[in-house]
Amino acid sequence: MRALRIIDTDDGPRGRITEMDPAELTAGTVVIEARYSSLNYKDALAITGAGRIARKRPLNAGIDVAGVVHASEDERFAPGDAVLVTGWQLSETRDGGLAETVRVPGDCVTALPDGLTLWQAMALGTAGFTAGLAIARLQDNFQTPAAGPILVTGASGGVGMFAIQMLAQAGFSPVAVTRRVEAQGGALRDLGAHDVIAPADLDLGGKPLGKERYGGAIDALGGRVLADMLGQIVQFGNVAAIGLAAGPGLETTVLPFILRGVSLLGINSVECPASRRDAVWGELAGALKPAQLDRIAHETIGLEDVHAVCDAIIAGEHSGRTVVDVTR
Description:
2 domains; 7-stranded mixed β-sheet; Rossmann fold; single chain; 16 strands; alpha/beta; Quinone Oxidoreductase, Chain A, domain 1; 328 residues; globular
């Protein structure tokens, strides 16, 4: 079988296409004939060596996979079932989805919901699931459109683009935050963004609180931008933290929390419980399914083209989603 495998080289961990015996795959009870995977920022870090994602090596890359069950020791799944896996330490401690065959524990497997094809499941992938989970957490904590517009940082990335379209479809007014306002503004408005602003537009100049301007936020940046956003959320609004592209630090005060009742919600899409995972995927196949999914997932490539796309992701020159057809 072919796999894009992360190995140790003289230059550090790198992804390489190789042939391997399926018997070498990490342990599991469900064997999946992979059809599609997708590329996320974490994949780019692992494959290029820009980040040490794979905690043991060699290990197959790819945090997402969709395919058909080949064999199963788990009674919940049978040969021929269409399934998907996102997160669950794929490409970290378990062999991942950028391979022709994947083996995982049954608890990691999600049945493909009605309303999605295998390609669509990977067009969404971890990015779409994270956006859907963030919106679910906001709504769980009583976020409503009436509270005001919702900031979406990292708006030109996969999670951001999905969040904008999903929020708009759910009746919210998303405000896209991106460094590429002129280059991406039109496309983001077409997806449903009510406005498009730059991160600098959120700067509070070091003050802990500013005017209450936004009902809530889905934040992929962390760092100073997240601190500034917290100081501009309305009373009882929510911020869902999904990433740390601007840094893992958070220098803020308790004032947004104790004076305005703002909630900071952590989003862990990797180890989300199966019951919640199934519910979110059901929404992604239904009401939250992006109307412009084919536009956001703008290309489908083979394994040989993965390195070039990962380089573009690391360089900040990639937008939207890339699906990988692992059978090519």
